[in-house]
Amino acid sequence: MFDTSNRLTNTSSMIVQEPFDRASHAALVQIQKVLQLEARKGFADTAATFGIARFVSDRTRTLLTNAGPTASQHIRDLDGLLADYVRLARHERERRVAEALAVVNGLLGNEQRQPVSATIARSNPKPESSQPTPSATLAPGSSEIVSPSSSVRTPAKPSMPRAPARAKVASLSDSVQLMPGVGPSRVKQLEQMGVRTVRDLLRLYPRRHIDYSNVQRINSLLFGHTTTIQGEVIAIDEQRTRTGKPLVDIVVHDGTGQVHAVFFNPHITRVLHIGALVSMSGRIEQVRGNLALSNPEWESLDRENLSTGRLTPVYPLVKGLYQKTLRTLMRLSLDAALPLVQDHLPEELRTQEHLLGLQESTDWMHFPDGPTPEDARRNLELAHRRLAFDEFFVFQLGLVQRKRQNQAQPGNAIAIDCTALRAFAEALPFGFTGAQTRATAEILRDMERPDPMTRLLQGDVGSGKTVVAATAALAAIRAGFQVGLMAPTEILAEQHYRGLSKLFAAAPEEFQPRIGYLSGKIGGVERTEVYAKTVGGELDLVIGTHALIQGGLEFQNLGLAIVDEQHRFGVAQRTALRSKGANADILVMTATPIPRTLALTLHGDLDVSTLDELPPGRQPIETHWILERQRAHAWRFIREQVDKGRQAFVVFPLVEESEMVDARAAVVEHERLSQEVFPDLRLGLLHGRMKPAEKDEVMVRFHDHEIDILVSTSVVEVGIDVPNATVMVIEGAERFGLSQLHQFRGRVGRGTEQSTCILISGDTSPEGRQRLQALVDSQDGFKLAQIDLDLRGPGDFLGTRQSGLPELDFATFADVRDLERAREAAERVLDEDPELESAKYALLKARLDAFWATAVTDAN
What we know:
This protein is an alpha/beta fold. Helices cover 41% and strands 15% of the residues. A hairpin with a 2-residue loop joins strand 6 (277-287) and strand 7.
């Protein structure tokens, strides 16, 4: 084995200095920093992306290009020292790193070992007095500050701070109270953030990072730039503003110049002293001609920098807990517990997907590091990509596993009565579109198979989902099975009952099913009768609300469960309806167009049929957008339509996603419109604070034309059919996503009259105009959904998240390729080991179970 132990004794003092060019000097400094980082990280071979050996080997090739004969030998020794680093035991790694650092320090020479204070003094000696000259005294732009009467403080220099105690952690499940400095009050603060164990703390990832990696000389500072300076404190000046508030002006000198740092906390004078070597980061401001840092982040240069001179993490906080405190605690936790982090992704999978290890990713997600700022930024991206892939992969793993488990259960092979279905289709007053024909065929093909169907039928407003569902229902009924259709509200359930009764009434009498209706309002004798007829097989199709899965309703032979507006139901409710039969087929429907990629993610346990074609002859809805100052035009148009006997919606946005705030806004606007704009018309109000029965009552009154104008928040129901409503006005349109705006627009245009949607916006930014103009130009919900995904990400699809799905912190659904790769990887793994029973996947199975622990699964 390569051994340089004897030759390298006291290397740093033996190396004959030979000049290096700038590139070689930079390469040596990079190696030095990485080796120091490797020591701090416990010699786990995680300081460089592809390992210490490869990193050093790449740099030594650069060094050998221009090195002299003596230095070349030492460079080759350095490369050889670390060539087999990955195979070494920890104690041997520690020895090799120490020896390698000795070589690097020797090659860098005496200059690298000079203290910063000496360098500063040599390059630009500070004034004889440690106090700044009057011209250097801070002259703030605010007239509040009293400079002439300020006093200069030169506190005694404290002793060097001791290194923080290293925590002893035996398990990631250990209490966070084991960490140094975490007492009872800190425990309570951390508990407020959901942090109880060391594992919780490591997973408290930063919300973002501030880039303080740009370390500059003071004489090159520019106003308005965010930067880091490093130098010596040469003056501390305590002042007071005219309001009596304390202000501390600290002057820092780095040999090229000096800059002020202004703090508004007098505590700084107890921890900083003249002569201290510091690193400070912040935005350069100008105060009466002086460049100054206002309340900058700062650290002593004798410690590892966590808040300055780097990509600095910004964590969520609670009252009494500060960023610097949490950063220090996080660094201590990482140093103590990172070796305990086990990677749940097998090495083979990580290699296939070019992913970092979990230890590296966890470390760099908090404190991205590297020889250069560019390396640190790249490492942060790599860490984020690994953790995002983790979420996609484990998410898809659960969905694919659930789908396969469902398909493995025995189901009902439903024989399709083509004669009955053909007679039903021919009796309809319209023909099927190509999309309806395709979707119907996909559904019937699934129903014929002996394993249970679980399929999503998604289609734009007016695309004809109901008739496709009716065809599937008739197929099940003709084969001797019953069908249950569940809708989220009374009014939607009643609408389905009326609509399907009308559709089936057109079919030949021998093919007409017996239909029943059940909701929370139905009780007593009527409810008992529905129960009896259902369990006795006298009803073929039962339509209702949650009442279908509550109480004593039992089917004689449920073969198909249909769920409308499925995003309003959780997986458990869906499963409860399916369980009313023997693994009944399930068809879920949604009127919210979702791009294919997002549908794959949100509904990965379902097969998806898409209605992306509107029936011919459907009138497009005229859409216009106007600015807030043109609002009166919208009110005049509404009055004209109401005078013609029509009705209108006026929708207001959610405010801070709070139903209470939202409700108050709607109430105020309803009151204003009723009194000031439409005092002679009948206005209704719909908002999220109302009980379901109250909302249903308002919508029924609007449907029955007892209300002329419905003022609503975004809770206005998707799928409600009010043919007489011809105007939709949306206030604050810029606050909604395109898909949601398209859904609102779909509330009108249900009748034969021309309908209009008016968007009122205060946003005149280029992106805002682009989004609103897209709605004006297109009636295609799927196209708009894709634009929404590209412009704003997935938030508008997930704002009202389907219960049963875990939260994602890193993954963004706009990244199509990563999502598809995660899906493919999940399929490969489950092909190999469907239940993840092998030792190879033990950690992955534990991670899968933990990830889905808060979700509602079919087993619940």
